From TrEMBL:
Pfam families: Cad
Ranges of compositional bias, category Low complexity: 101-110
Cross-referenced InterPro entries: Cd-R_transporter
Transmembrane segments: 6-29, 41-66, 72-92
UniProt keyword list: Membrane, Transmembrane, Transmembrane helix
Extent of Basic residues compositional bias: 91-100
Protein's recorded name: Cadmium resistance transporter
Annotated region described as Disordered, given as residue ranges: 91-110
Length: 110
């Protein structure tokens, strides 16, 4: 159990290097201009990590319900979302846009 916790902590630290850069920039901005206040940076960081932990916990509980052979099918979810986005983008591209009459800012009704 200790090895798993140590590995998880190492992975968490390794994947949060970008977060450290963002936090550094936010704290430097707070020190230089006072915006955002440092307490908002702290609260936002803790709220974000708490949300990630909660979603991960819910996903772990949800995976105990799903049979093991079906968990591989979860990889199809991002593919389906991407295909749906491509189809929606194609439909939006085919929809004709109304042109505004010259000298006006908005499309004419009808």
């Amino acid at each position: 159990m200790g090895e798993v916790a140590l590995a998880a902590a190492g992975i968490f630290a390794g994947t949060n290097v970008d977060d450290l850069i963002v936090l550094t920039v936010l704290f430097l901005a707070a020190r230089a201009t006072g915006r955002p206040p440092a307490w908002q940076v702290w609260v936002g960081q803790y709220a974000g990590i708490a949300a990630l932990v909660a979603v991960s916990g819910l996903a772990a509980v949800g995976l105990t319900i799903v049979p093991d052979p079906w968990t591989g099918l979860l990889g199809l979810v991002p593919v389906a979302l991407g295909v749906r986005g491509l189809i929606g983008r194609g439909a939006a591209r085919r929809t004709p846009r109304r042109r505004s009459p010259p000298g006006t800012r908005w499309p004419s009704p009808g």
